[in-house]
Amino acid sequence: MNLNIAVCDDLKEERVGLSRMVRAYCQERGIDLRLRLYSSGRELLDSVERSGPLNMLFLDIYMPGLSGVDTARELRKTDKSCAVVFVTTSTDHGLESYEVEASDYIVKPVRSEDVDRAMDWYISHMPEELRSLRVYSEGEWMDYPLSSILYIEILDHQSYIHIKNRTVVVRRSMSDLVSSIDSPDFMRCHRSYLVNLNYVQSIENCDFRLTDGTLVPIRAGNLNKIREDFINWTYKKAWSRQ
Amino acid sequence: MGLIFSVRMSTPKENCLVSEAVRRWAELVRIPITVRDLVIGEEPDMDPDILLWDLDGGGMPPDAFRGGKRSGKLLVLCASAEGKAIGSYSMHPADFLKKPMCLSDLRRVLEKAVAVWHDELERVDVLCGGFKRSVPQYDLLWAESRQHGTLLHTHCEEIQIRETLRDFCARLPDGVFLRCQRSFLVNLYHVRELTSVGVKLDDGSEIPVGRRVREEVQSACRELQGVWRTAVSL
User: Fold this and answer.
1) Does domain B123-231 have CATH number 3.30.590.20?
2) Which residues does A53 contact at the CB level (< 8 Å), separation at least 6?
3) Domain total for chain A?
4) Chain A contact probe: residue of B89, B98, B116, B138 with most A CBs at under 10 A
5) A95 Cα to chain B: minimum distance (Å)
6) Which positions in chain B touch A94 (Cβ < 8 Å)?
7) Digits of tens for pLDDT over chain B (234 positions)?
8) ipTM > 0.95?
């Protein structure tokens, strides 16, 4: 599992202390961590715009310039899924923390069990797009984020999992993979194909055209139903992003 | 039976008011909900999908509700003391409201429930480009008559259908949708403001209201918003 986590606190010793606890948690559980440290809300927001979204953010409230609560409000305008954990000396911002849909609120001094609790919760309630598919291939167990899978096809009792820039071959049935993935973003469009709808660019005749140009066949007898389901999925996806 | 919404406030009067507000809200957003009042000391008898629990009444919500919305269940906590908000994170509620509740707070919570239960919303089927679409009635903000049919304005997109506005209107339930002008239909739940020429909606659109129906639209909006507002003035 890979996690992008940030710590934002104007006090260096707080940033360092907190990042040690986060690192220790990830190390114990074999989580591949990318940790970014920021000393102000503005610096954090600028960086998120440049370097992409975060999975989790430990955010101080009292900082010079933009406060932690205002930083979270700004962040929420573009990112609804980042788990924001307030870390502060104050107990006065409980209501505001719910307004910005924080996932936890830690009162300083921070203890490692507070960080562990916040991270345990995040990992067990991860957003759909961060979930992984665990498969055994070429002698080892590997986790592939669902968001990286374009489509899966079955050929000669083997499953070919097409991931960006590579293909993984596993000996698992389609129904087994469908039940492991269990995601509304994946559609069984053909007896031998399971497609990640997030990569569908258009429907051409009897195929899904994916963003990388691949054509994934749709079962002819089901074309209308699949087209309707795809339109409704698109609508729901747009609705949930509002 | 649809979804079950259990309410446990600290007094029977509060229970009654909140339950009425939720019932009214469910009618407006077209979602099948059964609201159940719980008295203090009583555990939810059936398995509710959402539980509004007043911490002032003592006790803790059942374990099944702790831990966020992944399970498809929502826990909403409320209390008079703001300080209880931070302690509530151990239960990971979907939201925390400070009493007395205000309309916008309760609305915020209920709209979170809509996001989780999007599949349960009552829908209206329309044909668009030869394909059937099931549009949740809640998502339909307003509609306007066009030369070759009707244009539906939803939260996320515009949908062109061939049906006339009149025919489309006839398929929608009374009391929520209102033909506010010959060429316009409005979802009263999304009306934010009555202006001198029409109504302003959640998405910022302003819809004209015909002179003849102006009074009818105004009284329908006031009635709906009024019932809803009275019910949450705790």
Assistant:
1) no
2) A4, A79, A81, A82
3) 2
4) B89
5) 6
6) 82-86, 88, 96
7) 578 888 999 988 888 888 888 888 888 888 888 888 887 777 665 577 888 999 998 888 887 776 655 456 788 999 999 889 999 998 889 899 998 887 778 888 888 777 777 778 889 999 887 778 889 999 999 999 998 899 999 988 899 999 999 999 999 988 889 899 999 999 988 888 888 888 999 888 999 998 888 888 888 777 766 655 655 554
8) no
